[in-house]
Amino acid sequence: MGSAAFLRNCWYVAAWEHEVGPAQLFQRTILGQSLLLFRTSSGNVVALDNKCCHRHAPLSLGRREGDCVRCMYHGLKFGPDGKCVEIPGQTAIPSTVRVKTFPVAERKRWIWVWLGDPAKADPDAIPDMFSLEHPQWRMKPGYMHYKANHLLISDNILDFSHLSYVHEKTLGGSTAIADTRPKTERLERGVRLTREIRNAAPAPNHVKLGAPEGPVDRWWIYDYVLPGLLLLDSGVKASNPENRSGHTLHFHSCQAITPETERTTHYFFMQAHGFSLEDSSITDSLYNGVVAAFDEDQRIVEAQQQLIDSTPASEMMGLIADTALAHFRNLYQRALQQEQTESS
Amino acid sequence: MGSAAFLRNCWYVAAWEHEVGPAQLFQRTILGQSLLLFRTSSGNVVALDNKCCHRHAPLSLGRREGDCVRCMYHGLKFGPDGKCVEIPGQTAIPSTVRVKTFPVAERKRWIWVWLGDPAKADPDAIPDMFSLEHPQWRMKPGYMHYKANHLLISDNILDFSHLSYVHEKTLGGSTAIADTRPKTERLERGVRLTREIRNAAPAPNHVKLGAPEGPVDRWWIYDYVLPGLLLLDSGVKASNPENRSGHTLHFHSCQAITPETERTTHYFFMQAHGFSLEDSSITDSLYNGVVAAFDEDQRIVEAQQQLIDSTPASEMMGLIADTALAHFRNLYQRALQQEQTESS
Amino acid sequence: MGSAAFLRNCWYVAAWEHEVGPAQLFQRTILGQSLLLFRTSSGNVVALDNKCCHRHAPLSLGRREGDCVRCMYHGLKFGPDGKCVEIPGQTAIPSTVRVKTFPVAERKRWIWVWLGDPAKADPDAIPDMFSLEHPQWRMKPGYMHYKANHLLISDNILDFSHLSYVHEKTLGGSTAIADTRPKTERLERGVRLTREIRNAAPAPNHVKLGAPEGPVDRWWIYDYVLPGLLLLDSGVKASNPENRSGHTLHFHSCQAITPETERTTHYFFMQAHGFSLEDSSITDSLYNGVVAAFDEDQRIVEAQQQLIDSTPASEMMGLIADTALAHFRNLYQRALQQEQTESS
């Protein structure tokens, strides 16, 4: 499972916008690359190699000086373009004295970074994660750190039959979810899944948000695209139209899976509600419920990773439920091979 | 020292009977194999590969449903024979969807598991660890987890001269133990050691149990057999027959060394008393004294393992005292080679 | 950076004299070698391989018996010359039953050990670390344990431009230190650096010790020699001679960098004052200030090591400020190659 390499010619979410404050030096490692992120006086975020080119001290332990960062080991000062602008005790500054910079795009509330070939970095390729910032949706931002390879998390997202079991008491509530096979459509860079159940029990979390307790119809329609981005429309309504007034709960979720290392992953997530927009207790309750459910995912996925790592390698057994995840893993491997072919 | 492989065609103690309760899913790793142990409604213990064949989640995080276990990741349900009996969302269940099972034998109070060729698993090969459950013996069950290779623990057991030094203030009390060479007999699958000392000081632990303080005779007669099983008869009595009435202390100990990984080991042990059978304070005191002594062993053996691992490799220096341990290591290596020859 | 091997034909500081008390068994690992140090009844320190030659238990868990040490696993007893003098249960003691000893020299307050070819161990080669014990100097002994390769610490010492940045609020206080290039002289086994600044701000630490707050002249003159030994003369005085009375602060510092493993290092240090000799509050304040500053070094150097280890290898960028450290690293590598050539 996993692979020693990551797709590089992709935009990755590196941070929530609020994580990179105006006066801050923010460090985050993605794809094994330690990054320094900071916001210049114009408000733009820049991403620099965190490793000072001189003696490899972390610039994140350095000091902001205007739009520059000074390494606090021997005092080299770098501009937001990565060029060294001061070397204490040395007047000539060779143009080779610089740290690498990476393309950055801030879209809605996420800061995206591109680690691959800069010539290919087109911000228009970033999917529209609209519910992150939209007048008809409300949400609270979420982040988790996983001790697992990113593809195990993608697997999890690509088979919602786990809702019936992992999330029995939170987002599940019914074995009908697992018993129903979703429609799976292949996209150029991912997969689209549509799963609907009728006359079923609601999710315990949704009852807390006002969903009807009687028989309900539920749906999950989502795209999951490379390198690991989820756009999920879901909801619940009374199966009997007569009971439906005021009780349809409509959600939208954006999630981004960003590898930190081969065995650790950043998980950026949020789930927005499209009802009771002015009721912040709904926003809080929805957020708390999702965090509780994602803790359940983390427990099983990290245990899965540990078991895989601590026991002799063996093949996984493919089932019908694996259609989407197998397709996605296949896409990922082909894209990886293509990148490796192109770069050699 | 050690080896990357373990003997597999052997019965290993995997648990005390009370560790595997009726409604429980019990996980333990032996020889690098993660096992799920549980007791069916008939009371029999079954041992399954803990790794769900589907996506390798641990079944030990699953749920008992009658005599079955359900993986709580995607809901696959397995019978006690390892066969999958339900795949949510899929009607056909290929016979290949199953987890491996391992032969189990419950004898007296220990649960034994066989990881090698099942055709060779003969429970009659399990030594009679009689004192674990016997009307003339009383004991409390003990367990320790070692951060050391199992053969370092076998070494420890195979040279009781360490009683004089490691256990000076617990099980030793006299340098005469180390000064006396034991009789060593080679058994087909192990070694028999007989060590007797006369007119010596008693063990501090034994004085607490009522042993005479004056000169005593002491003995240790034991078999240690593959893969790491101890049956030990020992005791103490006044050297002067006139002082002997009521003061002979007779013990029997069963111990099982089961590798968890190359560098960690399970240690199952107990020491039974064959006197004052109805006095539970003796049982407690004996148990506490043995635990204190085994903590002394653990300290020196783990320090030995750390020193071996952190310093350049060098040869150990063979002494006369190593006769039994050298013979046992030799037996172990030959049995290992034979297994490897047979399986290739 | 770093290297898998260490220079061996050198004296290394292994301990402060007070660390090895009269009745003690003191363990320390240097160059990956676990050493047992103890002081015989004559007061001399001996250094033995800590690994008992029998079963590799640590002698440091053993027992002093006169000038001997007894291994508390199976009772072997070794003299201060490493020869085994007792094997319990065995009368003949082959001359091969012994542990290795290493040349030791106690000079002033440091205990030096030689791990290389004993024939080359000449204590006269130990530099005179005079201020460790001298009627005109006062100091308190310091020790730190670094999670970094020793050469990163040598680098730190060989470029004092870091005082302006790492130690801005302790030993620095002025960017003039980094802006001034030192004079660098090549020594046979090291390098001599002379750095002087005039009409500058004093170090915050020195103001606490009574240095003038006005413009001051400051100097650092030091030798740094293989394998990692510092002798540093430094001080501060008022730039205006009229303000100078009673305010010249003169320091001398001895420091020794001893590798423990490839990624951990012992740092022995002290800074002595040559003024106010009878005022122990000065000695305390100087010591506390140096420790605070060395904590600053440790933070940046350990972060540097972590970043180097966790990111893909890349070249460091040589600057003019690296003259001395590049020369020292060069000397180290050449000496290492020479040792390896000689020993093969």
Summarize the SSE layout with pairings:
The structure is a homotrimer of 344-residue chains.
Chain A: E1 11-16, E2 26-30, E3 33-39, E4 45-49, E5 63-65, E6 68-70, E7 77-78, E8 84-86, E9 101-102, E10 104-107, E11 110-114, E12 142-146, H1 150-157, H2 176-179, E13 183-187, E14 190-200, H3 204-208, E15 216-225, E16 229-238, E17 249-261, E18 264-273, H4 280-310, H5 323-343
Polypeptide structure, described:
The first copy, chain A, is globular, with a radius of gyration of 22 Å. The first copy, chain A, has 344 residues and is of the alpha+beta class. Chain A has 2 domains: 11-124, Rieske [2Fe-2S] iron-sulphur domain (Rieske Iron-sulfur Protein), CATH 2.102.10; 130-340, Naphthalene 1,2-dioxygenase Alpha Subunit, Chain A, domain 1 (Alpha-Beta Complex), CATH 3.90.380.10. Chain A contains 5 helices and 18 strands. The interface between A and B is medium-sized, with 28 and 26 residues.
Gist?
By secondary structure, chain A is of the alpha+beta class. Chain A has helices spanning 150-157, 176-179, 204-208, 280-310, 323-343; strands at residues 11-16, 26-30, 33-39, 45-49, 63-65, 68-70, 77-78, 84-86, 101-102, 104-107, 110-114, 142-146, 183-187, 190-200, 216-225, 229-238, 249-261, 264-273.
